[in-house]
Structure formats: C-alpha cells, structure tokens
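Bench log, entry 3. Co-assembly request; chain sequences pasted below exactly as received.
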Amino acid sequence: MLDTTSRVSPEAAPEPTGAPPTRADFDTLYRAHAAFVWRSLRRLGVREAALDDATQEVFVVVHRRFADFRPGPTEKSWLFAIAQRVASDQRRWLRRKGNLVQIPEQTVAEGHSPYEGALRREASDWLLAFLDQLDDARRDAFILSELEQMTFAEVSSALDVNANTIASRVASARRALVTFLESRGLAPRDGTKEGTP
Amino acid sequence: MTELSPAVRALLAEAGAQHDPSPRELDRGLDALHATLAFSAPLLAASAVSASAASSVAPAAATVAKATALQTAASAFSGGALVGAKAVKLYLITAAVIGSVGTVAVFRSAPAPIAKREASVQTTPAVREPDVRMVLPKVVEQVEPVVAPQPVVAPAARAARTVDIGAELSLIEAAQQSLQRTQPGRALSQLEQHARSYPRGLLASEREGLRAIALCEAGRGAEGRRAKDAFLARAGSTPIAERVRKACP
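Structure output for the full assembly:
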C-alpha cells in the first residue's frame, strides 16, 4: 500500500553553533508543532494534568538542541523523538511513585473539581485506553501512521526502525484495535477488510 | 494486511481529534517558555514584534512587554545607572534569597512576581524597588554566614555581576515556584537555564540546592542523591541545606 522500502536517510549532522535560537525561529517552530507535541505526549501516556509541563519540557529540549534542528520533512520526527523521551521519563517516575495514577473509583465518581473532571474524560477516552494497552513499539508506530497519517517511510525514519517492521507493527496494532472495539461493543458493523494486498 | 474500514477510520479520527490542546493552552505555554528561555539577542525586538503581529491575543502582547522590559533593564544597568545604594540593595536581595530558600512565604507572597517585577522595570528601568519587598528582616538575619561565598571580588567584576542579579533572581525564583507547584521537570529546566547563563552566578549555590530537591521530586533519586551529597559537602551549613537534607530521604 505504501512505500515500505525507502528510508529517509538521516541528514548530515549540522555544525552545532551552540547559540540559542532567535525568538522568531523558536516561535515559528512552536506555533507549527506545539499541538502535535501536546497530542503526541497525550497518546504516549502523559496524564492530562501533566501535559502542559511535559510540553514545556519538550520545547526546553528543542531550545537547547536547536542547532540540531533541520527544517523540513523530518521536523515532526525529531520532535516526536524528544516527546517519547519526556513521556518515558514521566512514566518511569509514575511507576516509582506507585499508585499515583490509580485514582479510586469513588473519587472519580463523586468528584466535581476540574482535575477530577479531567480524570473522568480520560477514563471515557477509549482511544487512550487502547493505546495504553499496546506495547511501546506498536503504539508508537500506530500513533504516527494511523493518527498522524505519516507514511511508513516517515514513521520508519522517525522511529529509526525498518519500514517493513513498521508495516507489520501497524498491521498488528490494527488487528488489536478491531479486537478492542469489539470487546467494548464499539465496533462498527463493517469492522475490517481482510486480505488487501 | 489488515485494513481498517472507513467506519473504524471515522471513529479513530473522531477520538483522535479530542487530543489537541486549546489555543489558550498553547499561548500560555509559549508565554512560559519566553519567560524561562534565552534567545539570540540581535533579532529579539524584531521577533517580538512579529510574535505580536502573529497573535492578537493579550498574552502575546504581555510577552513582548516582558522582553522589552528586560532589554531596557539590561541596558540601563550596563549603562551604569545602577550604582551605590541600589547596588548594595541588590546584594542584600541576593543574600536574602540565598538565606530564604526555606522561607516559602517570600516567594508565595507574590502570585505573579516575575511578570509584576518586569512590568515595573519597564517603567522605571533602573529602580528594582519591587525586589526590595523580598528582603524580610528575619531572612536577612539568617544570611550572614552565606553572604561571603566570593569574598574577593574586584570592583569592576562586582559591577558586572550586579547587572544580572535581577535576571538571575527571576530564574531561581521561577524554579522555586515550579517546585511549589509540584512541577519538578519545569524547575529543572529553569535551573539548567540558570546554570548555562550564570555558571558562577551569585545564586549558584542556591541553584545547586534546588536542583538536588527537584531531581528528588522528579523521581530521579540516584542523580538527586548525588547532587544532594555534593551540595551538602560544599554548603552544608547554609539555610537551604536543611531543606536539601529532607530531599531523597
């Protein structure tokens, strides 16, 4: 279906200047991609209450490594890689903190604060629940391919994984999605079409 | 391979569209980054104007005002406007902050101290009066042992150091606030920014203490403990030390 052979070769490393970006350059990048970074962090498992903080962290890294930034088709890949790192740091932190993310059912049910409202929204978001149950490899491929509509070649470059492997991970994640939707009674009647070459 | 049906794709698109931030959240994020990060100076004014043109919302205008204020303040200071009693006053402020790391009330007393201070700098660039309210008598008393980290400083060097105290203070203060808001990641970024801009700044000791605390609160225990031990070995008798000791128990 899509190009599964070519990989976007990494561009030659730029001369690192070490100088901070100009504000105009930084703002342009932020305005173009902050929403992508935000929703990617969300899909990578960052809790709603921590999203602004995590997005900040990504752009602080962007600022620090601006000399590495190459405008063009690899922009999003570069940002996604940073977002992955930030999200993974946060997951590790939450794991160490134990049950922080497991809010008692009663609290969720009776809560009236905005924070609790956010938790309820999270709980009702089937897509986040689905992504959460995928392993990292399939989740990352699925996010970029299915939700961001990137080609397998682009995903392959972003994740630094062979495009055929990406294709197989996306296929597996699609099957998992259909199963997930069926198990939740959310599946539309014409769930999937098998056998497309 | 398995293809998703149009109906499933529609479901996916609908659910995925819920994950975007609001424009307001994005603007707030950019404002916070502007307040924290340093940018290449030559194009600062031009970019600030373009940022203002690009966005008609109020926060962007406030950001521009902030940048202009900082520039004005910096040039006023380097132009020698800051002399005599005011310089002494800034040293006192610095001392007070070093001494007051445990005194949350100092920072808590002003909900938006950075914005306020910068706004006032814009109107009267050479006068940093708003900082003075931070010098609480009780805090200054604690300071004595800490004030002398750099006993021998040539007058010229001292003047140069004084220039940046306001900016140094803002960064440390911002990090302190992030910690209070349980945002250790942001605090670490702000402290890192301070380390880059003022590796040997007057608030370097303060920075290292806060960094140890932030690392611990961010769950980076191993690094936190290393930073804590290093800090306590160097500055174990300072007021902040007590707070650092409680981090990473």
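The first helix of chain A runs from residue 23 to 43. Chain A touches chain B through 59 residues (CB under 8 Å).
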